[in-house]
């Protein structure tokens, strides 16, 4: 009888541990979420802004929070890169820049991309601010607007490349999310790293950037 009770307790403890364990990422998410709410309450952040921040967290992490960098660092390089490539397969399918790329260049580039989410209406880039990265749209629509020029870009396009590929340091347009957007950003330093390794690979994008620069002509300060 005693043995049965102990066994039962042990099994129960094991099951509880398993269940708790299987919810690690949900629990971490929940505590991140609570922390954000407490933080915003503490600093009396206005209600509308609070809502947007909560919305961002929900769409960025979808209820589970992983320390992604640490998790991927546990693996070896080929595994890590294979996982990242698989994770970016939607992006690769949609972008001509990636679709026909040399696989070695592609791995190097994907490794440097950072995933970002934006809600409808959010300003992704503000005209006149200093730009330190460019963006690839995996999913969503954005509006590019500068005085006398508007354009809508969607899945498979990129923007913000002038600050990365030319001498221009300030953003030349506002870019706003029209729908909820899933983007990947590439910083100037990552771009320089990759283009040093694969000087020809980015040629198409660079030509496009130079063309855009010419079209903008004298309006650039
Ligand atoms: C993989 O994609 C998810 C979104 O689908 C994103 O949250 C995550 O950061 C991406 N990871 C990498 C390494 O690109």
Automatic annotation (TrEMBL):
MF terms (GO), sorted A to Z: voltage-gated potassium channel activity
Pfam family, one: cNMP_binding
Xref: InterPro entries: cNMP-bd_CS (IPR018488), cNMP-bd_dom (IPR000595), cNMP-bd_dom_sf (IPR018490), K/Na_HCN_channel (IPR051413), RmlC-like_jellyroll (IPR014710)
Gene3D superfamilies: Helix hairpin bin, Jelly Rolls
Signal sequence bounds: 1-17
GO cellular component: axon; dendrite; HCN channel complex
Domain of life: Eukaryota
Keyword terms, alphabetized: Signal
Any one GO biological process: regulation of membrane depolarization
UniProt keyword annotation of Signal present: yes
Keyword Signal: yes
Record domain Cyclic nucleotide-binding: where: 97-194
UniProt name for this protein: Potassium/sodium hyperpolarization-activated cyclic nucleotide-gated channel 2-like isoform X2
Gene name of the record: LOC116223525
């Amino acid at each position: 009888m005693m043995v049965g009770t102990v066994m039962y307790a042990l099994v129960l403890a094991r099951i509880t541990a398993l269940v708790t364990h299987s919810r690690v990422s949900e629990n971490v998410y929940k505590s991140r979420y609570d922390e954000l709410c407490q933080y915003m309450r503490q600093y009396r952040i206005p209600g509308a802004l609070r809502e947007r921040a909560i919305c961002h967290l929900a769409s960025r992490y979808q209820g589970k929070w992983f320390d992604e960098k640490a998790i991927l660092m546990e693996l070896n390089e080929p595994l890590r890169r294979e996982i990242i490539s698989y994770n970016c397969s939607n992006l690769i399918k949609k972008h001509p820049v990636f679709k026909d790329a040399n696989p070695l260049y592609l791995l190097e580039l994907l490794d440097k991309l950072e995933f970002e989410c934006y809600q409808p209406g959010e300003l992704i880039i503000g005209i006149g601010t200093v730009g330190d990265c460019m963006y690839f749209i995996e999913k969503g629509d954005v509006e590019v607007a500068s005085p006398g020029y508007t354009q809508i870009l969607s899945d498979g396009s990129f923007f913000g490349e002038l600050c990365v590929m030319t001498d221009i340091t300030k953003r030349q347009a506002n870019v706003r999310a029209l729908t909820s957007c899933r983007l990947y950003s590439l910083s100037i330093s990552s771009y320089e790293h990759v283009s040093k390794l694969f000087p020809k690979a980015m040629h198409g994008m660079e030509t496009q950037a130079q063309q855009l620069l010419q079209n903008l002509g004298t309006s650039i300060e």
